[in-house]
Specification:
The chain is mainly alpha-helical. About 75% of the residues lie in helices and about 0% in strands.
Length: about 200
């Protein structure tokens, strides 16, 4: 595998990480939006839940709103699983008198949460995997560059000035690059390529 192959692998893995990070951001927005929509749903149907459970002072109503409506406004991702589980349990115990459309909406809250949260967690796991792949590719490239540097040092052991000439910053300038690369020995790495990867 040549150094250019290693460089290509690193660039590909960087692209994968960037793409997966974008997906992760999108999934996080979906989770946040779901929590907001849950608050909106509970606020909209609080009166219907009160009627169906015997009033706002009833045990059934308090089972749906243990922290009041404000509890849904401040609902966090860590609290959400237990909250949705409580809604399911409250529905099973006190939901018989609640209007059917509201009861159906309450029943859908927990499965909906697991769907959006599961998508986010799956994406985050994928991000970890692509980061590991990127890190492995970077290490492989680093070792290949070290080997190339050692080979260069051996080749020009008796003429270090010539060896150093391949690492001059001026080689990065476009007008000189073509000529400089033509002078590079077979198997050596042009300084421009090395510097571009390092940057």
């Amino acid at each position: 595998m040549t150094i250019n192959d290693h460089i290509e692998t690193v660039l590909v893995t960087l692209g994968k990480v960037a793409f997966t990070r974008t997906e992760g951001g999108s999934d996080t927005k979906k989770v946040d939006a779901y929590l907001k929509s849950t608050h909106a749903f509970m606020k909209k149907h609080a009166a219907a839940i009160a009627v169906g459970t015997g009033g706002e002072d009833s045990e059934g109503y308090r089972a749906f709103f243990p922290k009041g409506l404000s509890g849904y406004l401040r609902l966090s991702k860590t609290e959400a699983p237990e909250t949705f589980k409580s809604i399911k349990e409250a529905l099973a115990k006190y939901g018989a008198g609640i209007a059917e459309p509201v009861r159906r909406g309450l029943a859908d809250l927990e499965p909906g949460w697991f769907a959006v949260r599961g998508g986010q967690q799956s994406t985050l796991e994928g991000l970890d995997a692509t980061r590991n792949e990127r890190d492995a590719a970077r290490i492989a490239l680093e070792f290949a560059l070290i080997d190339a540097l050692h080979d260069m040092a051996k080749k020009y052991k008796s003429d270090p000035k010539k060896g150093l000439s391949f690492f001059q910053p001026s080689l990065l300038l476009a007008r000189r690059r073509k000529k400089a690369e033509a002078d590079v020995p077979a198997g050596a790495v042009p300084a421009a390529t090395t510097a571009a990867v390092a940057g």
